[in-house]
């Protein structure tokens, strides 16, 4: 069972202390009612991972840990077997003691696109909404964040995160909570809020932007990364039942329309800092994610279109400030 007591202790004093009025009850309810059928299996895999104190950790250029004395072939095989019980691994990659977790997404490429445009994270309190297994949180810690808090209701991602934390020597500078953004009160406590790959999954995108704004301190920064389409400030794609085989895609605006949405929600200094088409090198099937991936979701005759005939995935990064 994941223990959130350490996190509660860390936030008991400081700007997040008032979260303790609601958070422990929400977590207790999740532990009582929200358990996935595979959760115990995943938690067992994490519990059997060896307790290691790494001799070197890199969170600046990667998410990796290792020891001066290499693991034996048998130890590497055992570590690999346990980590593969937490498949599919979607966000990464990770490198631990000679084991390379080659995830579906090259999340390091996204980080390299985002990082040059954001305010320095040194000593900041950071929230990562829809954080997946937490890859980007560790990169935020590597960039100097005082504390990175991630929220994602997917329980496999929580177990993957706890596995990574254990292999990093039980680092407490990042924490993942199995919650959705709609479960957070207006904390108004975070210096930087990241929402990457979430907006198009929200039935009400403006409500999502308001929820993000409500987590920021005055003057805090929003980093928003999402699917967009080419077009002017009035263009928005509303896909049918699926987009690139994903069922829950509701609104894909142009970057200019999204800039307008942010301004309508009261953000200022809104900047479009990056456009990038997702390639089959950045999102692909691997030994650690063996089901279909981007190449299977595109039109085989025209890679500029999805298999449903929509524009192929184009992503943008926007930076905005709460006044």
Relevant terms:
single chain; 323 residues; alpha/beta; Rossmann fold; 7-stranded mixed beta sheet; 4-stranded mixed beta sheet; 10 helices; 28% helix; globular
Short structural description:
This protein is an alpha/beta fold and 323 residues long. It has helices at residues 5-11, 23-33, 39-48, 73-84, 107-114, 135-142, 155-167, 205-213, 255-264, 294-297, and strands at 56-58, 64-66, 91-92, 94-96, 99-101, 105-106, 125-129, 147-151, 174-177, 190-196, 216-228, 236-237, 252-253, 268-277, 298-299, 302-306, 314-321.
What does this structure look like?
- By secondary structure, the protein is an alpha/beta fold.
- It has a single domain, classed as Rossmann fold (3-Layer(aba) Sandwich), CATH 3.40.50.150.
- It is built from ten helices and 17 strands.
- It has a seven-stranded mixed beta sheet with strand order 9-8-7-10-11-17-14, sandwiched between helices.
- It is globular, with a radius of gyration of 20 Å.
């Amino acid at each position: 069972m994941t223990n959130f007591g350490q996190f509660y202790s860390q936030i008991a004093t400081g700007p997040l202390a008032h979260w303790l009025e609601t958070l422990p009850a929400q977590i207790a309810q999740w532990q009582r009612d929200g358990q996935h059928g595979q959760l115990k299996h995943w938690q067992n895999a994490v519990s059997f991972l060896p307790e290691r104190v790494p001799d070197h950790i890199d969170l600046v250029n990667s998410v990796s840990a290792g020891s001066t004395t290499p693991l034996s072939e048998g130890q590497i095989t055992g570590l690999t077997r346990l980590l593969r019980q937490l498949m599919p691994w979607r966000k990464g990659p990770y490198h631990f003691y000679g084991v390379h977790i080659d995830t579906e997404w090259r999340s390091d490429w996204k980080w390299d696109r985002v990082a040059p445009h954001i305010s320095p994270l040194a000593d900041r309190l950071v929230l990562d909404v829809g954080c997946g297994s937490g890859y980007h949180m560790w990169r935020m810690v590597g960039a100097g964040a005082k504390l990175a808090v991630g929220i994602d209701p997917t329980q496999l991602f929580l177990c993957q995160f706890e596995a990574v934390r254990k292999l990093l020597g039980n680092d407490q500078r990042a924490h993942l909570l199995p919650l959705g953004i709609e479960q957070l009160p207006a904390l108004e406590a975070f210096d930087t809020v990241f929402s990457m790959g979430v907006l198009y999954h929200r039935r009400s995108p403006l409500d999502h932007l308001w929820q993000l704004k409500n987590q920021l301190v005055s003057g805090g920064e929003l980093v928003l990364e999402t699917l967009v389409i080419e077009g002017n400030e009035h263009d928005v794609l509303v896909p049918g039942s699926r987009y690139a085989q994903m069922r829950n895609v509701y609104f894909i605006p142009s970057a200019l329309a999204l800039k307008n949405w942010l301004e309508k929600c009261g953000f200022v200094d809104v900047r479009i800092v990056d456009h990038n088409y997702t390639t089959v090198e950045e999102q692909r099937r691997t030994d650690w994610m063996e089901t279909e991936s981007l190449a299977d979701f595109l039109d085989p005759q025209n890679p500029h279109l999805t298999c449903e005939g929509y524009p192929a995935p184009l992503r943008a990064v926007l930076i905005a400030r709460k006044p």
